[in-house]
Amino acid sequence: MARGSRLARLAALGLLGVLTLTGCDITDREFWVENFVRFGWPEGITDEAESMRTLWIWSSYAALLIGGVVWALIAYTVIAHRKKSDELPRQTAYNLPLEIVYTIIPFAIIAGLFFFTVVTQNEVLDRDEEPDTTIAVNAFKWNWQFVYPETAGPDGEPVDTVGTSTEIPILVVPTDQTVQFELASADVIHSFWVPDFLFKLDVIPGNENGRDNVFQVTVREEGAYVGRCAELCGTYHAYMNFEVRAVPGDVYDAYLEAREEGLSTYEALEEIGEEGVASTTTPLDLIQTKVVEQLQPAGD
């Protein structure tokens, strides 16, 4: 009992130490919800994120339940069947009912997870035939280009934003509207990932019909959110950062109008009252001149 009490005190002190070192307020409800209810997952800012979050949380609960049962059975076996003498215990060659049970249960678990995963996937990948706005995302080694195909700049071409080795590209999207992303890769497989979307999609090069590289979201929260490439695409994969800037629909329209008039991404963002540079991530320091050249967009 004394040993168990000491272990309990040590565990409590360890938990308190972790909370102290991380600077967390243990009275903060959001802290407990995020770390012990959502298991560290962001709450999500899109309609689609709700389905993803629900699947993740309940899958985790199911895994904990199954793990608890397994640990309990292991503990029971260790305690109930510990060695009591040198006499060999009774040996059982076959137990058909037990074998049927431990065959059916894993199958039922896998079938259940598969069913709910497919249902969630269908909800997340479902697309409206007429989205409110469409944005083309072009990935290349090693940065991003965001094109607004329904616009026309001073040169008659759709306005776009291209990242460089010294500038994080900012993808501006409207809130409360269905946004369709059409992804393409100029070279290898990349992956478009916004953690707060609770979603990522690999960008497969050479996809002729483009169907598998298309998805839609409806963003509900205004703000700035970091984006990454989630596929190891080469030496400078870590440089492929971007930022999603979610603004109200009328502000989004004003941003596009400013871009069509010839303003740069920075100038247009400042024009609508937004910060002109990314705030969620910064460019990594480049040491070799060769790297800088490789990260410049084609034609510059």
From TrEMBL:
<keyword id="KW-0472">Membrane</keyword>
<feature type="transmembrane region" description="Helical">
    <location>
        <begin position="100"/>
        <end position="119"/>
    </location>
</feature>
<dbReference type="GO" id="GO:0004129">
    <property type="term" value="F:cytochrome-c oxidase activity"/>
</dbReference>
<dbReference type="InterPro" id="IPR008972">
    <property type="entry name" value="Cupredoxin"/>
</dbReference>
<dbReference type="InterPro" id="IPR001505">
    <property type="entry name" value="Copper_CuA"/>
</dbReference>
<keyword id="KW-1133">Transmembrane helix</keyword>
<dbReference type="InterPro" id="IPR014222">
    <property type="entry name" value="Cyt_c_oxidase_su2"/>
</dbReference>
<keyword id="KW-0186">Copper</keyword>
<dbReference type="GO" id="GO:0016491">
    <property type="term" value="F:oxidoreductase activity"/>
</dbReference>
<dbReference type="InterPro" id="IPR002429">
    <property type="entry name" value="CcO_II-like_C"/>
</dbReference>
<feature type="domain" description="Cytochrome oxidase subunit II copper A binding">
    <location>
        <begin position="130"/>
        <end position="258"/>
    </location>
</feature>
<dbReference type="InterPro" id="IPR036257">
    <property type="entry name" value="Cyt_c_oxidase_su2_TM_sf"/>
</dbReference>
<keyword id="KW-0560">Oxidoreductase</keyword>
<dbReference type="GO" id="GO:0042773">
    <property type="term" value="P:ATP synthesis coupled electron transport"/>
</dbReference>
<comment type="function">
    <text>Subunits I and II form the functional core of the enzyme complex. Electrons originating in cytochrome c are transferred via heme a and Cu(A) to the binuclear center formed by heme a3 and Cu(B).</text>
</comment>
<protein>
    <recommendedName>
        <fullName>cytochrome-c oxidase</fullName>
        <ecNumber>7.1.1.9</ecNumber>
    </recommendedName>
</protein>
<keyword id="KW-0249">Electron transport</keyword>
<keyword id="KW-0813">Transport</keyword>
<dbReference type="Pfam" id="PF00116">
    <property type="entry name" value="COX2"/>
</dbReference>
<keyword id="KW-0679">Respiratory chain</keyword>
<comment type="similarity">
    <text>Belongs to the cytochrome c oxidase subunit 2 family.</text>
</comment>
<keyword id="KW-1278">Translocase</keyword>
<keyword id="KW-0479">Metal-binding</keyword>
<keyword id="KW-0812">Transmembrane</keyword>
<feature type="transmembrane region" description="Helical">
    <location>
        <begin position="55"/>
        <end position="79"/>
    </location>
</feature>
<dbReference type="InterPro" id="IPR045187">
    <property type="entry name" value="CcO_II"/>
</dbReference>
<dbReference type="GO" id="GO:0005507">
    <property type="term" value="F:copper ion binding"/>
</dbReference>
<dbReference type="GO" id="GO:0016020">
    <property type="term" value="C:membrane"/>
</dbReference>
